[in-house]
Amino acid sequence: MDAMTHKATMSAADPVTFYGTEVASRLLLGTAQYPSPAILAEAIRASGTEIVTVSLRRESGAAKAGQSFWQLIRDLGVKVLPNTAGCRTVKEAVTTAEMARELFGTPWVKLEVIGEDDTLQPDVFGLVEAARILSRDGFQVFPYTTEDLVVAEKLVSAGCEVLMPWGAPIGSGRGLNNPYGLRSMRAHFPGIPLVVDAGVGLPSHAAAAMELGYDAVLLNTAVAKAGDPVRMARAFAAAIAAGREAVIADPMEVRDMAAPSTPVMGRALLGS
Amino acid sequence: MTSTQTESTEKTTPWQGANAMRVRIVGAGVAGLTCAHAFAARGAQVTVIERKSGSGQGCSWYAGGMLAPWCERESAEPIIAELGHESLAYWRASVPDVPNEGSLVLAPPRDLPDLKRFSRRTEAFEWVDGARIGALEPDLDGRFDQGLFFPTEAHLEPRKALAALTRLLVEEYQVAFRFAADGCSEVDDQCSEANNPSREVDDQGSDAKVADFVVDCRGLAARDTLTDLRGVKGEMLVLYSTEISLKRPVRLLHPRIPVYIVPRGDGHFMIGATSIENDERGRVTGRSMLELLGAAYALHPAFGEAEIVEIGADVRPAFPDNLPRLRKRGNTLYINGLYRHGFLAAPALARRAAEVAFDGAYFPEVMDEDHRQW
């Protein structure tokens, strides 16, 4: 089997499933901050992404006045994951989610309840509460959370079938701040799709997340604010595919050569 | 610098003397007025129709008035800078009070990466340190360690500039203005009559040609015809303070909330502007004001004590690529999609529109028909 055929087989046989919906691309893209909707559309096409997040809170206005932008996004033929970005209270998040369901006709919602205005760190208490309310109401919730295992456990019991821990604060581009925490989250929730959401700055960060065994990566700023967003979208798609291939390929273990396991013998002495 | 090619196949008419070109311009914002100027300067008889009661009262009213082609390179395509340089020269020559003080781009210490990114994507600036910032803007002395200074840029007060331009058009070029009293329905009829927009039915019921060319400069209202236009809301406010003075526009970078402050003279400062993907006019949110005021306060605490003189919002017309377009359908020209670049792009587009009408010129950089509907 040549390399190309192998790759095609690989990706065709390796979808990720969110709430029963299979998608082939493991890159989820946010739609904010691009230089223009035209560049956004091109970046989405270049990335091969099948799911885009759309923030409702600000663009909606009083009379759902964001229609023309949302129509541009609908026209791209990708699945929309409405986002409660910018919501600071449970009530706001729930109201925004309800509006999103009506507007986009989807039970999916990326749930953000922001607890800190500067770092945009999630308010995990409000998050769990909102997730419980929304799940009970038939929503399929994608919660933006931290790597805290107890919070994750509570989100799962609230009805979440996907978890989205941060890599680093939103828009910081710092990569995976706590790889150990992310690894233990993977180990604790082997059966739940895990998505690293936020903080990813470089394709190598995304590849690292995939190598930890994460199912997908969600990012926005790293592509939107790149000098050439379309090219950067392509770079992320390649990195995520590479990281996924690597984890399936079962990488070698790191070996500590500084601690010899056998006596050093039979070796010529050099430089004496 | 701009490629122009005249379509040799198109027969051009000598629009001279009694055969002066009659042009009807719909919309008296920055696009309509600069267009009136460009046509009138070439000898056309120009009538401007506007549904509001005066000129410049659409989204031009809320513009920042920064003439900053270099700074705009940070997020806009090269064509914006190209049009911007031409427009900058136009404003300097056409209206009074265009301070050539350049512009200043600053960032708080934590957001220096944004300053570096800004510098990578622009040119014609110098890095300035704290001392130099203090020399340029004494009231900012000691507040910032690093910045970018764009010495060749300028700014203007949009409302005064458009009022001056209107006077110039009336007094020097005998341009006729028909404001609200003439009714907006006429404006709408004029343009919805897509097949024959230069004709209207006169009192006797006969079909009379009233203009050789119609130029539609209606902004977002032209969405009835240009269906891929969308609105991008912008909110602004005007502060009054005698405790601080600035000579030039200052941009304060922030990863999520970039803000600019433009001195308007007499202690007035315009703070702008949000950029929100919706087409809702008028409504201003608390969050937006928090962001704008927060940024102003970060620039200088004196803004915390400033008086809020005005809060405003309007909707910028934009095409999907956020680039302006000049279109021609028969004898109707359309100038639209100026987005955040009204003052920066309008004069250059107006000049091209006149050349399209008079000379049969074609400007691929703004006339390529690459949108869905075309």
Automatic annotation (TrEMBL), chain A:
The active site is at K110 (schiff-base intermediate with dxp). Gene3D superfamilies: Aldolase class I. Keywords: Cytoplasm, Schiff base, Thiamine biosynthesis, Transferase. Its EC number is 2.8.1.10. It is found in: Cytoplasm. The keyword Transferase applies. InterPro entries: Aldolase_TIM (IPR013785), Thiazole_synthase_ThiG (IPR033983), ThiG (IPR008867). 1-deoxy-D-xylulose 5-phosphate binds at G171, A198, G199, N220, T221. One of its GO terms (molecular function) is thiazole synthase activity. The keyword Transferase applies. It catalyses: [ThiS sulfur-carrier protein]-C-terminal-Gly-aminoethanethioate + 2-iminoacetate + 1-deoxy-D-xylulose 5-phosphate = [ThiS sulfur-carrier protein]-C-terminal Gly-Gly + 2-[(2R,5Z)-2-carboxy-4-methylthiazol-5(2H)-ylidene]ethyl phosphate + 2 H2O + H(+). Pathway: Cofactor biosynthesis; thiamine diphosphate biosynthesis. Pfam families: ThiG. HAMAP family: ThiG (MF_00443). Belongs to the ThiG family. Catalyzes the rearrangement of 1-deoxy-D-xylulose 5-phosphate (DXP) to produce the thiazole phosphate moiety of thiamine. Sulfur is provided by the thiocarboxylate moiety of the carrier protein ThiS. In vitro, sulfur can be provided by H(2)S. Homotetramer. Forms heterodimers with either ThiH or ThiS. This is Thiazole synthase. The gene is thiG.
TrEMBL record, chain B:
Keywords: Oxidoreductase. Its EC number is 1.4.3.19. Residues 23-355 form the FAD dependent oxidoreductase domain. It holds the Pfam family DAO. One of its GO terms (molecular function) is glycine oxidase activity. It is an enzyme of class 1 (oxidoreductase). This is Glycine oxidase. It comes from Ancylobacter vacuolatus.
